[in-house]
Design goal:
single chain; 448 residues; alpha+beta; 2 domains; nine-stranded mixed sheet; elongated
């Protein structure tokens, strides 16, 4: 009879008890994987809301004016050149008319931007009014350096051009002082564009450019949104920009030599030499358009809080929070010898996922930091009270509240860091791993 008991049912519960921890770990792993489903839906929701915001920005820009790029001013001439060819063994010279472009010898730009915020539904779009003063000169010496015969240039009916990315932003008639004359610009570049397809131009007579430097000055009142760019056409291009905006992002091929940023404004100075670029001051017929376009520089008026970007960065840490929360609950369950049902793990996981939906919706109505505090506070309170109800004790509830508070604080610090995010994240994960390894030693994994 004793041998019959060797395979009796009395040993089966003992075996199940021995593997119960492993089964629970496998179950927790499956629940963590299942959490990818709601989190992917939340990421799609964040992208959808971001697209709606981008649409609102485009709509406001279409009605106000978009990103502005200012190109010029520059001069375009008709140039009569000799072209030789060989026919029947004889060299024949013919004259052809080409387009010749002369860039300014020096270009000094002073730009003052006054910003304001426009609302479209729940979204805010930053726009600006600007007053731009451009001064400089055109130097005939640049033509001679290129081996061009001054007498072959038609200085009558020359075209003075100024490229402007979005013509809707022009606030009033644009006048230019060129030498002793003052001209009003006409719309269109008439096929003489360099870096923008739109702009203004004026046909002028400047025969005096054959012999002397011609100064110019133009004042431009221009509206725009999001960003302001310039092209360094001058042999020496100097730009001074100031704006009542405290979070600028300097972009383009050249960064400012000096800049000062306060909470409410910024100033910046650029200086670009012709030696810093890949195109010359004079070119005939085909302009190096790609090189000119790629030489732009300026400022983006960066929005202080990009809630969708921060929400997405926060969501990337969701699996870490869910996994650590489940792990701590599992440790508490084992150490306190209390049973927590799989469904209860699932509900806690859903509550953790709901945090990101709360954060997204709240951040659209208030600053991100306050939205984060409210969303995390609600989530921590909900899970803490739920653990109190399950375990019938405040001690594990306080453990869970402390853990989630530390985790959400740690994640918030990470998303605020940019250059040090990887270092802080790696060190934090190392500390968490060490703590988990320490507490795992206290569990007898082979007995109930």
């Amino acid at each position: 009879m004793e041998n019959q008991n060797f395979f009796s049912d009395d040993r089966k519960p003992g075996f199940l008890r021995r593997i119960s921890k492993s089964l629970k770990i496998i179950t927790i792993g499956i629940l963590v994987l299942l959490s990818f489903i709601p989190m992917s839906m939340i990421r799609e929701l964040i992208n959808e809301r971001y697209d709606l915001e981008s649409g609102a920005i485009r709509e406001v820009s279409e009605k106000w004016s978009g990103r502005q790029t200012v190109v010029g001013p520059y001069l375009n001439f008709k140039y009569i050149a000799l072209q030789t060819s060989v026919e029947n063994g004889k060299e024949i010279a013919t004259t052809v008319v080409k387009n010749l472009t002369l860039l300014p010898d020096d270009l000094n730009i002073n730009a003052k931007l006054t910003t304001e915020t426009r609302k479209r539904n729940i979204y805010e779009v930053n726009v600006y009014n600007s007053i731009i003063t451009m001064e400089g000169s055109f130097n005939p010496a640049e033509l001679k350096k290129q081996g061009i015969n001054i007498d072959d240039i038609r200085f009558n009916n020359a075209t003075l051009c100024l490229g402007i990315a979005d013509m809707r932003g022009i606030g009033e008639q644009i006048k230019i002082s060129l030498g002793d004359s003052i001209y009003d610009f006409d719309p269109g570049l008439n096929g003489k564009e360099l870096a923008t397809t739109s702009g203004v131009s004026k046909v002028v007579d400047i025969p005096e450019l054959k012999e002397k430097v011609i100064p110019f000055k133009v004042e431009l009142k221009l509206k725009g949104s999001q960003a302001m760019y310039f092209i360094p056409l001058g042999k020496t291009t100097k730009v001074f920009m100031e704006a009542d905006w405290g979070t600028p992002s300097f972009v383009g091929k050249y960064l400012p030599e000096k800049h000062e940023i306060t909470n409410e404004s910024f100033t910046a100075n650029w200086q670009v030499l012709n030696l810093n670029r890949s195109f010359s001051q004079v070119f005939v017929n085909n302009s190096p358009r790609n090189e000119i376009e790629n030489s732009d520089f300026g400022v983006n008026l960066k929005v202080p809080v990009e809630q969708y970007q921060q929400s997405m960065r926060t969501a990337k840490y969701a699996i870490l929070i869910i996994l650590l929360t489940f792990t701590v609950i599992f440790f508490v369950e084992i150490l306190d010898k209390k049973r927590i049902h799989t469904l209860q793990y699932l509900l806690i996981g859903l509550a953790l996922c709901l945090f990101y939906a709360l954060l997204l919706s709240l951040s659209e109505q208030m600053v991100f930091g306050l939205a984060y505090i409210i969303a995390s506070g609600l989530t921590i309170g909900l899970i803490g009270l739920y653990i109190r109800g399950i375990m019938k004790s405040w001690r594990p509830a306080f453990v869970m509240i402390g853990l989630l508070t530390a985790l959400y604080t740690y994640i918030y610090i990470l998303i605020q860091l940019e250059t040090l995010a990887l270092l802080a994240g790696s060190l934090g994960l190392f500390v968490i791993q060490a703590i988990l390894m320490y507490f795992s030693k206290k569990i007898d994994w082979f007995n109930e």
